[in-house]
């Protein structure tokens, strides 16, 4: 059923310029996005508050280079977008004509046919011990109109505020999305026919991005802060998305690259990354696991895959005596991945895009937690260690190593 959902613009007593308007549709299914985790409100599938949160993030990513400190940046952000006790110069409204359909990825604990690769990105939708039924993502058919208003009568209005608003919208449409797991391509925004995707690598040179070092800890699109883009040409958005998932899965745990080829009658070979052997040999005084695993396959006592984002849960199938291990930053819920993988363009004419956000934080307090006991472990490699880990091919930064692998035919 198609529902017409309207959101009022900013209060009518304010005098606004003509709004910045964009007609938006989506390339990929949405992961959650409602008030309840992993679910969507089918009556109100497009939430202006959720989009505003995305716009704020991408405003910071594009414009933080203009500020010397986090405090300066936050003050500017609150002036523009508002805070707990004040309205900002910018406001938005959404006029939506969207229909919502369930988009399953799993039947039981198995990926649906045709979604084998994408199931790697969709793993949170798998059945759990508490719920045997897999959760769906959601396909949003139709489009919605987003209007960004600049309140020129606001006491803190500045002449450049329209540029600030356009910068956020420009970055969100290319790199962001709607709902959860947008960094793995869910809810990706369709750029439309008027936007070229011929040279996405040039987007990081756009004037909307302030190409200066931003304050510490603020993810950035600035090339001077280390942001990078790579793309591969495909014909359709879903194929581009599947290619990204397939490449990422093989790099991290695929046979012949991320792990050894399996032995006869075995499900999988041993991982070529160091984390499993770190768990087997270094979290306890005595080794855990089978006798055939007593010799580490990688002589590196670190956890470089934490660079891709945390937490990571390590589960040893068929070894019940090895309890699950969580890799994370101590006393933090998560470390958001600096790696964004999504299709970009239109449904029938898209590219697979990899974006590495710049200004990555130092990960100095990473721990492996098993049975409520923390063991500190580094995620940073030196060159000698990088040569020990086959998928990295000598590159000590796992994200850069994956970018090199992604670009290969």
Output the keywords.
409 residues, alpha+beta, four-stranded antiparallel β-sheet, disordered N terminus
CATH T-level topology of the largest domain:
Alpha-Beta Plaits
Shape, principal axes of CA atoms: globular
**What strand line-up does the widest sheet have?**
1-3-6-2
Number of strands: 13
Strand content: 15-25%
CATH class of the largest domain: Alpha Beta
Round the Cα radius of gyration to an integer and report it.
23 Å
Number of helices: 7
State the separation between the terminal residues, measured CA to CA.
43 Å
Weakly predicted, low-confidence segments: 1-15
Q: What's the rounded overall pLDDT mean?
A: 90
What's this model, at a glance?
Helix content is 21%, strand content 19%.
Polypeptide structure, described:
The protein has 409 residues and is an alpha+beta fold. The protein has two domains: 2-225, Alpha-Beta Plaits, CATH 3.30.70; 242-338 and 359-407, no CATH class. It is 21% helix and 19% strand. The strands form four sheets. The chain has a four-stranded antiparallel sheet. α1 (48-63) packs across α3 (161-175). The radius of gyration is 23 Å and the shape is globular. The relative contact order is 0.14.
Topology (SSEs and partners):
Blueprint: E1 2-6, E2 20-24, H1 48-63, H2 70-81, E3 90-103, E4 106-107, E5 110-111, E6 137-150, H3 161-175, E7 228-233, H4 237-253, H5 275-282, E8 312-314, E9 325-329, E10 339-345, E11 350-356, E12 366-370, E13 373-376, H6 383-388, H7 398-407
Antiparallel strand pairs: 1-3, 2-6, 3-6, 4-5, 7-11, 8-9, 9-12, 10-11, 12-13
């Amino acid at each position: 059923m198609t529902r017409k959902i309207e959101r009022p613009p900013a209060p009518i007593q304010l005098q606004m310029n003509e709004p910045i308007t964009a007609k938006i549709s989506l390339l990929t299914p949405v992961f959650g996005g409602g008030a309840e985790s992993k679910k969507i409100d089918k009556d109100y599938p497009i939430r202006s508050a959720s989009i505003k949160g995305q716009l704020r993030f991408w405003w910071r990513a594009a414009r933080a280079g203009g500020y010397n400190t986090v405090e300066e940046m936050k003050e500017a952000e609150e002036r523009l977008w508002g805070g707990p006790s004040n309205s900002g110069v910018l406001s938005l409204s959404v006029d939506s004509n969207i229909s919502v359909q369930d988009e399953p990825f799993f039947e039981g604990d198995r990926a649906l046919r045709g979604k084998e690769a994408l199931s790697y990105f969709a793993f949170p939708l798998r059945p759990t011990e508490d719920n045997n039924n897999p959760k769906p993502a959601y396909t949003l058919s139709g489009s919605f109109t987003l209007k960004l208003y600049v309140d020129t009568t606001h006491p803190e209005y500045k002449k450049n505020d329209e540029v600030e608003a356009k910068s956020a919208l420009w970055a969100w449409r290319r790199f962001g999305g709607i709902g959860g797991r947008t960094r793995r391509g869910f809810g990706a925004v369709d750029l439309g026919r008027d936007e070229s995707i011929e040279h996405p690598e040039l987007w990081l040179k756009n004037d909307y991005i302030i190409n200066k070092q931003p304050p510490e800890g603020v993810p950035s699109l600035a090339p001077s802060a280390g942001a990078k883009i790579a793309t591969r040409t495909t014909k359709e958005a879903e194929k581009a998305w599947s290619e990204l998932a397939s490449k990422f899965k093989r790099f991290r745990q695929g046979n012949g690259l991320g792990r050894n080829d399996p032995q006869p009658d075995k499900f999988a070979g041993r991982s070529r990354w160091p984390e499993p052997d770190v768990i087997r040999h270094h979290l306890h005084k005595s080794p855990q696991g089978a006798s055939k695993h007593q010799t580490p396959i990688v002589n590196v006592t670190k956890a470089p895959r934490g660079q891709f984002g945390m937490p990571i849960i390590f589960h040893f199938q068929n070894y019940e005596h090895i309890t699950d291990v969580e890799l994370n930053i101590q006393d933090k819920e998560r470390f958001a991945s600096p790696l964004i993988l999504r299709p970009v363009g239109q449904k029938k004419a898209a590219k697979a895009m990899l974006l590495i956000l710049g200004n990555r934080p130092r990960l100095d307090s990473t721990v492996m937690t098993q049975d409520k006991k923390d063991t500190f472990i580094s995620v940073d490699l030196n060159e000698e260690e990088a040569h020990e880990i086959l998928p990295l091919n000598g590159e000590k930064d796992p994200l850069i190593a994956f970018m090199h692998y992604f670009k290969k035919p």
